[in-house]
Amino acid sequence: MSTFKAPKGTYDLLPPDSAAFLAVREAIAAPLRNSGYGYIETPGFENVELFARGVGESTDIVTKEMYTLTTKGGDNLALRPEGTASVLRAALEANLHKAGNLPVKLWYSGSYYRYERPQKGRYRHFSQVGAEAIGTEDPALDAELIILADQAYRSLGLRNFRILLNSLGDKECRPVYREALQGFLRDLDLDEDTRRRAEINPLRVLDDKRAEVQKQLVGAPMLRDYLCDACKAYHEEVRELLTAAGVAFEDDEKLVRGLDYYTRTTFEFVHDGLGSQSAVGGGGRYDGLSEMIGGPALPSVGWALGVDRTVLALEAEGVDLRLPATTDVFAVPLGEEARRTLFGVVTELRRAGVATDFSYGGKGVKAAMKAANRSGARFALVLGERDLAEGVVQLKDMASGEQEAIPLAEAVAVVRGRVG
Ligand code: ATP
Ligand code: MG
Fold it and tell me: How many angstroms separate the CA atoms of 356 and 326, rounded?
């Protein structure tokens, strides 16, 4: 062990478990790539003001969870706590929305940072794959994103997840509702923090996990009853498209989510095997965000799925994605000259597409064969001094123990045929 440990709230991805993370990222990306989404990568940090405006001054993310820093040059930056604001910033900066082809569909994958109280499923460094469809208002786009996330989870073998769906209204109907809710909340017996929240962002009080708060919320005005006709019709269309696609969802009129920029469609994917950190992903429509960060009106929708929690959900369901390394051939040289020759064969095998590993460090035959065993390879390729003199190499079937001498000059072709 070294003097250092991974910082609090973080952990390292190590083999063999790391294979599941790669598989999850890949599985989420595949349906997006297949549906017109292009890959985008933005910096790991941004101007802190982007998140303050884009995520919302009253959100937990901005008030409590951001890692901020001042550079030697005096810039105020923040490690990115989420992806949407950065992606929209980048799309606007590059004028992708002016190229004529709306929506601009983008997907991303990377590390995010939030200063949170670490616990299972909640870390200070975590990993998301996300998708954004920018510049178009169309319920089919909202439905598309939910369907693609559902497809991604199912392709991983995940079954015990649920989709929660709600509409948050728009700038016509939400303010009316907001006021009605505020009126209701003012009459409740709430602590100081929650009172303040009720004044700044009353919808988020609905999301409070505490039983004593939830008890008081019975009878609270519900946004559903305040939605304007346009929002109602839009939401109904999203629901119908999902139903037609065979994607089951639950209407959850209390689903608010932590970010200020959401409008209309909002959704969350929850998994029942995760305890209190049950959200594996979430997203929604954010028609006002572009203007909030100084851009033109660009109605958009997107989601972010948490890779860490998806891996935990797979574990909870007993789905094993830790695919072992796929070494087909393990090469064992005995002696200095054999080492050079066999290393050349290994290089050729790899170029021919055969997964091959090599015994490094001048091990004796016993230790080398042990390594061959551990690698899981189907064949060992053993080259001794006498083999070398005879122009052959020993091909050993690791399962049966059978061994045969094959001509060294044809080793690559023969092995390739066997592995086939
Ligand atoms: P929560 O309510 O659990 O705090 P959130 O609403 O803050 O989640 P989002 O900002 O919507 O989460 O992020 C999308 C997904 O990213 C979450 O559903 C979750 O899977 C993952 N995620 C968010 N924060 C963390 C974290 N601190 N550690 C691990 N995963 C996280
Ligand atoms: Mg959170």
Answer: 9
Distance CA 173, CA 169 (A): 6
Residue 48 and residue 82 in one domain: yes
- Name the residue with the closest Cα to ligand 1, atom 22: 306
Task: Find, among 396, 392, 389, 341, the residue nearest to 365 by Cα.
Answer: 396
Mutate to test the pocket of ligand 1, among 10, 11, 116, 122 (most ligand atoms within 8 A of CB): 122
Q: Which atom of ligand 1 is nearest to the CA of 281?
A: 18
Q: Could you tell me the CATH number of the domain that includes residue 130?
A: 3.30.930.10
60 and 38 fall within a common domain:
yes
pLDDT at residue 388 greater than cutoff 80? yes
Question: Could you tell me the pLDDT band of residue 323, with boundaries at 50, 70 and 90?
Answer: confident
Residues 169 and 302 in one domain: yes
Query: How far does residue 251's CA lie from ligand 2's centre (Å)?
Result: 21
Ligand 1 atom nearest the C-alpha of 305 is 15
- Regarding whether 238 and 162 lie in a shared domain, the answer is yes
In this model, does residue 420 exceed pLDDT 90?
no
State which H helix or E strand residue 375 sits in: helix 365-375
Residue 116 CB–ligand 1 contact under 6 Å: yes
Query: Which ligand has an atom closest to residue 268 CA?
Result: 1
My answer on whether 270 and 349 are in the same domain is no
Which of 63, 126, 166, 303 has most ligand 1 atoms within 8 Å of its beta carbon, as the pocket-test mutant?
Answer: 126
Check residue 321 and give its pLDDT.
Answer: 85
Same domain, 342 and 374: yes
- Is any ligand 1 atom within 6 A of the Cβ of residue 112? no
Each residue of 237-259: pLDDT tens digit? 999 999 999 999 999 988 987 66
CA–CA dist 323, 319 (Å, integer): 11
Percent of the chain whose pLDDT exceeds 90: 86
Q: How many angstroms is it from 64 CA to the middle of ligand 2? A: 10
Q: Rounded to an integer, what distance in angstroms lies between the CA atom of residue 18 and that of residue 1?
A: 20
Q: Is 328 near ligand 1, meaning CB less than 6 Å away?
A: no
Domain count, the chain: 2
| DSSP tag of 65 | I
Per the structure, the complete domain to which residue 366 belongs is given by 329-419
